[in-house]
Design brief:
heterodimer; A: Potassium Channel Kv1.1, Chain A; B: 13-stranded mixed sheet; Skp1-related protein (chain A)
């Protein structure tokens, strides 16, 4: 059961298990099919499904609209969920440091530019997928390894406090839209 | 979109997984990140402060940070992995300490905290521990450390840091010391054993030292312990064996011996008395094959177990010998088990509870009134002064003659740990010469200033070609600075000069109260009458 097929492509392997499939519509109207096990990884979606009372019979007729996630991110998320749907439950962390190795497959999946990664994190946060969240945070954290604050500022696109203050001041000096 | 636009809980999640070094970098990126990082604990696996070469110290954190500090003639050289710089006019230890305190100021949990300053200068050690203590004292919360490891010659290594560690997190305590066990040190060790930190601990390791610092009874709550001493007396061996026999908690004790004769003696002592739960490792340094694990020895017959009670002096000082152990066994076999803990007549006044001051752990066999007089506590010190003196009002509190000036706290400079002998003038001079920054002598020809006559003279001769007596520009500001420095170096002195004592009923009541606290048994006797 826990042994996974080599192929990361999702839809092909579903056939042999007679899965329950759900449809998700992203904000830009792309439609995705996702299996029951995979959708369970997302707490938000799974709550929605149980609350709506979707069953195996009517699932495909009632697509779930997800307004906050666009097609590109949803594709990554669906890929991820299908990949990890049979993963065993991870033991609770007792230590305050979470130590895990980022699998190669996931590293490649997440090797996208910062802008997209941050978008993906927001989407993941909304859909409440614990594992993908951990992995994304790890990828972002890895960028900070052995960097000076100046380098970090460039990597993460953060202005210095002085610039920040200047920006704020100019914003407050110029008359706002309300008055 | 950047990291700044993320919700705070996500950023917190990202930063939580970072190593300490990266967290520090992150922290200095901007206010937003700083506030997030300061919210949660950083977790350090290991932080160590090592100063075992003269004029050099190293701070390392996990495997990511390593900063070394090296003393130069006119300052200090700081070397980080990425950059190095020279800081002028700063003592290397001050810079190192400032860095260490900077790290400890952050919200952190530490698995292992190591302090190794055993071979640095005496004054450096004192100043290190003093500064650490005043820093830890100013912290609102106690420092969460799981294992505290210290290598030093001073009892301050125990007293100035251990009480400020969180008792609930502290599990292991490693003490490596060659301190002398005089009364003060003994009292301090006893006080340590009364502390929560000691009682909550699970493992104690000890190495070095001429004498085992802890009494048997106080080891019983531990899970395991380790002793590594060059010379172990019979008394110590039997003592350690007794702990193993009595304790139900101790699952194992490592026991390292370096002395070759000690090996056979130890195995003799232990061989007959190790029960199956406790395993003792007796290790011989040269041939590694001689490591004996005696954990599987069969349980001895209880009647065979020798006990020592009131260890006699001859045995203590004798070298280890198998025959002698039998001798102890024979002479002491009559004593029952319980006697070791509660001797009917107080044969060991320095261990007896009745003679122990509850406040400081100091022990004395004499009459209680004498005990009070020889108390090292400051408050009581003052009270003696008052009772002994004929003046009841307005007396300057100054002890007539201090006998052990090289150890007396009053003669010790708080900033550098140097013991200044002699009178007040010497102390003032020390404060002015070593710690004052004001330069009150000015060259008449140029702007050069110094606080010392000799460099002043050198300056005039080399720069201006002749010896010009310098101009003294001491004013009220300079004097105030001196006073301030003096207060920092010898705080007691200053306080005492300002204090007047009124020996009245209220005061006597307070003395009686203090006595009752120290020796509850004698509380009904009133020693200080009007």
């Amino acid at each position: 059961m826990s042994v996974e097929p080599e192929v990361p492509i999702v839809q092909v392997e579903e056939v042999r298990e007679n899965p329950v499939l759900y449809k998700i519509i992203s904000s830009d109207n792309h439609v995705f099919t996702i299996s029951e096990h995979a959708v369970k990884l997302s707490k938000t979606l799974w709550d929605l499904i149980t609350n709506l009372g979707l069953t195996a019979e009517n699932a495909l007729d009632n697509p779930i609209p997800v307004e906050n996630v666009n097609g590109k991110n949803m594709e990554t998320i669906v890929q991820f969920c299908e990949r990890h749907k049979y993963d065993e439950e991870e033991p609770e962390y007792t230590n305050y440091i979470r130590e895990f190795v980022l699998p190669e497959w996931d590293r490649q999946l997440l090797s996208i530019d910062n802008e997209e990664l941050f978008q993906l994190i927001l989407a993941t946060n909304y859909l409440d997928i614990q594992k993908l969240m951990d992995y994304c945070c790890r990828v972002i954290g890895d960028m900070a390894k052995d960097k000076t604050p100046e380098e970090l500022r460039i990597i993460y696109g953060i202005p210095t406090d002085a610039e920040d203050d200047a920006l704020e001041r100019s914003a407050s000096d110029s008359p706002g839209p309300s008055g | 979109m950047s990291l700044r636009d993320m919700p705070a809980e996500i950023v917190e999640k990202i930063t939580d997984n970072l190593e300490f070094r990266d967290r520090i970098s992150m922290r200095s990126v901007c206010r937003f990140l700083r506030s997030i990082i300061d919210q949660s604990y950083s977790h350090l696996k290991r932080i160590s402060f090592i100063a075992n070469i003269e004029e050099k110290s190293v701070i390392s954190v996990d495997s990511s940070i390593r900063i070394s500090f090296e003393g130069l003639v006119d300052g200090c050289h700081v070397d980080n992995r990425k950059r190095s710089e020279n800081i002028k006019n700063k003592y290397y230890l001050d810079v190192a300490l400032k860095t260490l305190i900077g790290i400890l100021k952050m919200k952190i949990r530490i698995d292992e905290f190591t302090v190794d300053i055993v071979s640095s200068r005496y004054a450096d050690q004192i100043s290190f521990f003093n500064k650490m203590q005043s820093f830890l004292d100013s912290r609102k919360t106690k420092l969460p450390v799981e294992r505290y490891e210290v290598y030093s010659k001073l009892s301050e290594s125990v007293t100035s840091i251990l009480p400020y560690l969180e008792p609930k997190t502290l599990r292991k305590f490693h003490l490596s010391t060659r301190m002398e066990y005089k009364e003060v040190e003994k009292a301090e060790m006893r006080r340590m054993m009364d502390s929560d930190q000691w009682k909550e601990g699970k493992r104690f390791e000890f190495s070095g030292g001429p004498q085992f610092p802890v009494s048997i009874e106080n080891l019983r709550h531990l899970d395991s312990f380790r002793v590594d001493m060059k010379t172990l007396t019979n008394e110590n061996l039997v003592m350690i064996r007794d702990i193993l026999l009595k304790s139900t908690n101790i699952s194992f004790g490592d026991f390292y011996m370096i002395h070759p004769i000690g090996l056979s003696a130890a195995s003799k002592v232990f061989g007959s008395s190790v029960n199956s739960v406790n395993s003792i490792i007796v290790k011989h340094p040269d041939p590694m094959s001689e490591i004996l694990d005696e954990g599987e020895e069969e349980e001895p017959h209880p009647s065979k177990i020798p006990k020592i009670d009131e260890p006699s002096l001859e045995i203590k000082s004798e070298p280890l010998d198998a025959e002698e152990i039998e001798l102890i066994e024979a002479t002491n076999s009559d004593f029952s088990l319980g006697m070791l803990m509660e001797p009917p007549v107080c044969g060991e006044p320095d261990k007896c509870d009745e003679h122990r001051c509850r406040l400081c752990g100091f022990c004395k066999l004499d009459e209680p009134s004498l005990v009070i007089k020889s108390e090292p506590l400051e408050e009581i010190d003052e009270s003696i002064e008052a009772t002994n003196s004929d003046f009841s009002l307005g007396m300057l509190m100054e002890p007539p003659v201090c006998e052990e000036q090289h150890k007396c706290d009053e003669h010790r400079c708080r900033l550098c740990g140097f013991f200044v002998r002699g009178g007040d003038g010497n102390r003032k001079q020390h404060a002015r010469a070593r710690h004052s920054v004001t330069k009150h002598l000015k060259c008449k020809e140029c702007d050069y200033r110094d606080k010392n006559q000799i460099p002043m003279r050198n300056h005039t001769i080399t720069q201006h070609g002749r010896d010009i007596p310098p101009e003294d520009i001491t004013d009220d500001n300079v004097k105030a600075e001196w006073e301030e420095t003096m207060a920092k170096c010898f705080p007691n002195k200053i306080e005492r000069n300002l204090k007047f004592v009124f020996s009245d009923d209220k005061m006597r009541a307070e003395w009686n109260e203090t006595l009752a606290k120290c020796f509850p048994e004698y509380a009904d006797l009133t020693y200080f009458r009007g």
